[in-house]
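Reviewer 2 asked us to include a model.

Predict the structure of this chain.
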Amino acid sequence: MQLTPFKARFLSTSALIIMVGILMSGPIGNLIVQLVHGQEAWGGVQEFISSYSRIMSMPIAFGFLLIIGFVFFFASLYRTGNDDKRILEISGIIFCTIFASIISLNYLINVAYIPNVLDQSEANIVFLTMSNPKSLAWVLEMFGYGFLGLATGIVAPLFGNKGIQGAIKYLLIVNAVISVFGAVITAIALSGVLSIYGMIGYYFWNALIFVIMLLVIIEFRFGLKK
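Predicted model (structure tokens):
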């Protein structure tokens, strides 16, 4: 895949935004929460309300960087291939739009809605907070990222078959497989999202996306200087 210098810079910038989002919504953000406030496993709505702190939603807020980054990422890939591949570009953008819509709603609920109804609706908190492994929030989260997985798998053929582009291509396909698999598992066993196996999968996904975006930067930012 050949990109104009502008599109290459835009693609690599989107990858950098995603990498920052990965770190701040994942390992770094969660570490800060644990150091500043501490966050126990879900023990019921009353315990959640009594121990709630705004900082608990900080990693979720940084998740908006992921949404922004991926929107830019897929927009950068539009009109990069021949006419036969245009359907892949458009389909990727559509599935990314579904992902962005679902995940934005989920994060808005957890960042802006939950903190403002702690004294009003225990049922809504149980139903919507990401602290509860059996909440609707985790269905939205896992299926939203499942649609993102479909998007990455669809646009993977836009990248070349050799070198760094080949690695990006096949890792995007790997992401598609594990993301869709995660959504299916969630539909079967929702409570597993915050289990030890769910957390292993979560950090593996973070590492996978981080590596993909690092390769994108190497290829499309520094590769232009070859």
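The mean pLDDT is 93. The chain is about 75% helix and 0% strand. We have added this to the supplementary material.
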